[in-house]
Design a protein that fits this description.
There is one protein chain. The protein is of the alpha/beta class. The protein folds into 3 domains: 103 residues, no CATH class; 260 residues, TIM Barrel, CATH 3.20.20.60; 93 residues, PK beta-barrel domain-like (M1 Pyruvate Kinase, Domain 3, Beta Barrel), CATH 2.40.33.10. The strands form 4 sheets. The chain has an 8-stranded parallel beta barrel with strand order 1-2-3-13-14-15-16-17, surrounded by 7 helices. A 7-stranded mixed sheet has the order 4-7-6-10-9-8-12.
Amino acid sequence: MLEDDPNELLAAVKDIHDQVNEQAARTLDRWEPRLSRAPFRPSAENLARYLAFRKLDLRPVEAALAPWGLASLGRCESRVLPSLQAIIANLEMICRSNAETVRPERGDFRRGSDTLTANTDTLFGLRDGGRRTRILVTLDTAAATDAAHVARLVDAGMDCARINCAHDGPVVWQAMIDNVRREAAARQRDVRVLMDLAGPKIRTDGVITPKKRKKVRPGDRILLAFEDAGEGKDPPFRATCSAPEVLRQVPAGAVVAIKDGLIRGRVEAVRGDGLVVAVERTPPDGQPLKPEKGINFPGTPLAVSPLTPDDLADLDFVVEHADIVSYSFVQRPEDIALLQDEIARRRRDRAAMPIVAKVETQLAFTNLPELIVQAAGANPFAVMIARGDLAVEIGYERLSEVQEEILWLCEAAHVPVIWATQVLESLVKLGMPSRGEFTDAAMAERAECVMLNKGPYIAEGITVLDNVLRRMEGHRLKRSAQLRPLKAWDREG
């Protein structure tokens, strides 16, 4: 067994080291044309090594290292090469080898985490009051007219304000930004402004339902019409789509999810007038079919530009007034390149604008390494785990696994992550949290930023989240336990 023979274990780790470097070199050659921002190059090198490292089955080696008291391979995301080099150097000492492997310096271990911290500061501003994880807050329209409301958010601990470009318009946005800047300056706080481009809205429209039954149930059929839902009996549930060009790309057999998956089915037939969806799952009492509800096509690649004409018009305002632009429905590196070109055309010789890519589809998750390289190779960059749409796309049972993998990959690239969707939602909207929400908020500490959505109790939500994050940061940094003294069971003294 590996754990019984340190020489055999040393050979195994050296083999991992060589495979990782060889594969990473090939990956970096492919990425080279996109690495125009010099500070990202060391991060790209570590990301390439991490991708090669995680292609291997490391479990036997990991288990064999533990009895020798050697550092775990399981927490090396930000520092792949130094971790391998340190283990090799220690095994050589145990084996009394004459080899002289260079032991990494202490700074080599910290460089990755320090880079991630610096990148987080670049996007979200300097830390306030010692809390590492930032709090991003979605503003409602009241933020445009009620400066006192904005002041409460800043006082509670808001680090970054999010404006959703799907709502309101430039006059309201400017008033929101003015209030945020003014109240933050009055408190000597660095509160950034993130503006979220709406992207293509794939939603129900023009809904027609039977007069005697508004709810859809399993076994029903829905026509998603290409143009006009029309009046008809086949089937009685009908709706058009806000992006009809999308429907024409969807084949028979494709999965369809409406309203966060509360209505789920498959395309039974592609007709001349639209898609016939056979409903397979709804809540026990059925689910109303209503307009303005999101439609997802999990597993179906869609050729949809993430920048709509409305987005391009909004971008004129965003590049002049926001600190960060958030990008919806991004799926391919070419999508990132499109936004970069549009921003550069508007900013000319000014510094590159920070970009946040929202990971909300299976394809975005699959392409994440390439999205990171394309974006961070030229711009300060962060990733948002848009857990609502992502869960519908990949399945709720996979969400926990996938969000972990996103966190690991982004840490390897030294890219900040925003943990988003329904964080403390019951508290923010109803004033009464659920127990599960606190566990979710505590888990969010592993990200660099946590997003809260708007609600009447948003200030209370910020205060509670601030408290939870500060407590958890005393115990854990990313995946590493901090080993703070535990006093709960101390009965001495």
